[in-house]
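question for whoever is on the cluster today: can someone run the full assembly for these? two chains, 280 residues total. i dont have access anymore since they changed the login thing
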Amino acid sequence: MKARHIDLTDACGVDDAMRRIAIVRFAEVLTLVPALRHGRSKDLHNLRIACKRLRYALERFTPREPALLEAAGRLGQLQDALGDLHDRDVLFAAMPKDLHVTAQRIRMQREDALARARALWRDAFAPYGPFEGLMRFTGLGYGFGDGALAGS
Amino acid sequence: MPDDRIEEWALGLVKGDVQAFKRARSRFLRQPSAKRLHDVRTTARRLRCVHEDLHDAIPPFSLRRLRHVIDLTGEARDAAVLREALREALDVRERRAARHLLRVLRRRERVALKRIARALEDLRPPHP
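^ ran it for u. tokens below:
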């Protein structure tokens, strides 16, 4: 998934530039979050990439904006869970069809990773949770915790 | 163009990431290892991301070769991680049936590592 261009041409100072970048990258993540509900591989992979982009950006900003540190940490955990899931998907696709027991184990590991990612996402939006600082900084994400995962 | 303060800040960030990539590259070329490969991959991807985020505020530089390095490190990393995941999940009764795939993954990793070393030797890190 290609990263969206961020317009900095008329940004007013470094804080405004940081905010513009965080808004675009966080919006990319929020757009892809329904993947956690339906669990489709390709969309989950795109979500992982978007989490990574946002995390890298936030890590760069934390010297000036320490309130973003917790969100960066949570995105790292989310990225790990989605990475485990992606590895299982790739492995499953490459495996010979006669490895039935192993395939079953891999499917279960995938489900565990997905459940872990969902829990990390939900918890991130709790009051005073890891995304609090990010939501305040960008003005985005309100109502995205449980709401985005309803039915999963 | 963005104002001078933004350009100065953006250039500082890019320079920091270029330096980190150069260090990881030298360490890997001196003595390749899984950890050092991971560092090359991570620093290369951070550099690509900073370029995407700050595109409007930094002088243009090409990412073509860096992208090639990222792709190659991905191949080696995927082969190693998949081999490890398969070993971990493998049922003893199915060991024989998995042998071929394990061998293919090991070979893929070795080939990718050689190609990475060549690509890194040829690569001149970007000078923004």
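summary bc i know u wont read the tokens: Helices of chain A lie at 13-32, 34-38, 41-61, 69-94, 100-124, 132-138, 146-149. Chain A has a mean pLDDT of 93.
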